[in-house]
């Protein structure tokens, strides 16, 4: 699995160890992730959880402006995690090489930016217009995810971008106040059925569980056994250890 280690330039991430406040701390975090087994770095300047304060895109970009070129200078792929086309445009011009589209590519301007820069696009499933306005999935989750991807990939075809898309079932997001037990059952269902998303013929990308509980550990094992092509990760060493134990032929 190709791993994108997480660097958060927003101050309200749930994973406090991932938070950085400038290029120096971002480089320290990035180097630590790479040494622990990450292949690339994912950087975001606007939190998408229900506790995150939504800031103007200019504030989001100011958080990223110096960090992205500094990390890109390490010579690795850098993805920018954003739902603002203004931020995506500036980040890709500054050295980011992948668009991690937190809006699920539900804006034409995001497609235009991605097509102009000819970059891979991580396309997450969202049960709403953006991570801050989501609802519970009321139908079979894989059916809902498949329907969403079919619609988004039809848009990708308009821009000649289908082959650059990487499919994310969106399990890193959740509607506000989604109880953990419900989220756990939902994620377990999705993770055990990832092969059903293979009919699109595109690589899969999973926001990997990072908390240490029996249920989170179970979910991480399910994902590793499913062998998605990409993962977004806070603790790459855990994933590499699991791969060595569960996938000795990898």
How does this model look, in words?
The protein is α/β, with parallel strands linked by helices. It has a single domain, classed as Dihydropteroate synthase-like (TIM Barrel, Alpha-Beta Barrel), CATH 3.20.20.20. The protein contains nine helices and eight strands. Strands 6-5-4-3-2-1-8-7 form an eight-stranded parallel β-sheet. Helix 1 links the parallel strand 1 and strand 2. Helix 4 packs parallel to helix 5, helix 7 packs parallel to helix 8 and helix 8 packs across helix 9. The N and C termini lie close together (9 Å). The mean pLDDT is 94.
Q: Order of helices and strands, N to C?
A: EHEHHEHEHEHEHEHEH
CATH architecture annotation name: Alpha-Beta Barrel
Main-sheet strand order equals 6-5-4-3-2-1-8-7
As residue ranges, the low-confidence spans are: none
List the helices and strands and how they pair.
Blueprint: E1 2-8, H1 23-35, E2 40-44, H2 57-64, H3 67-72, E3 78-82, H4 85-93, E4 98-101, H5 108-117, E5 121-124, H6 141-158, E6 165-168, H7 180-191, E7 205-207, H8 214-226, E8 230-233, H9 236-246
Parallel strand pairs: 1-2, 1-8, 2-3, 3-4, 4-5, 5-6, 7-8
Helix pairs in contact: 2-4, 4-5, 7-8, 8-9
Summarize the structure.
The chain has 250 residues and is an alpha/beta fold.
């Amino acid at each position: 699995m190709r791993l994108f280690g997480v660097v958060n330039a927003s101050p309200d991430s749930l994973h406090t160890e991932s938070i950085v406040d400038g290029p120096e701390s971002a480089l320290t975090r990035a180097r630590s992730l790479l040494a622990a087994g990450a292949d690339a770095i994912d950087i975001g300047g606007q939190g998408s959880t229900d506790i995150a304060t939504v800031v103007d895109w200019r504030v989001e970009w100011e958080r990223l402006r110096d960090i992205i070129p500094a990390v890109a200078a390490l010579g690795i792929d850098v993805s920018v995690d954003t739902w603002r086309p203004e931020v995506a445009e500036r980040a890709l011009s500054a050295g980011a090489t992948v668009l991690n589209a937190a809006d699920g590519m539900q804006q034409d301007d995001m497609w235009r930016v991605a097509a102009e820069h000819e970059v891979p696009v991580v396309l997450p499933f969202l049960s709403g217009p953006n991570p801050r306005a989501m609802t519970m999935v009321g139908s079979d989750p894989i059916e809902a995810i498949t329907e969403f991807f079919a619609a988004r990939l039809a848009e990708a075809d308009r821009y000649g971008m289908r082959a650059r898309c990487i499919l994310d079932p969106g399990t890193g997001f959740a509607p506000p106040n989604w109880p953990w037990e419900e989220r756990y059952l939902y994620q377990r269902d999705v993770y055990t059925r990832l092969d059903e998303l293979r009919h699109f013929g595109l690589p899969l990308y999973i926001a990997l569980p990072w908390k240490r509980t029996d249920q989170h550990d179970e979910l991480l094992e399910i994902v590793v056994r499913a062998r998605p092509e990409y993962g977004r990760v806070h603790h790459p060493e855990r994933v590499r250890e699991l791969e060595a134990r569960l996938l000795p032929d990898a």
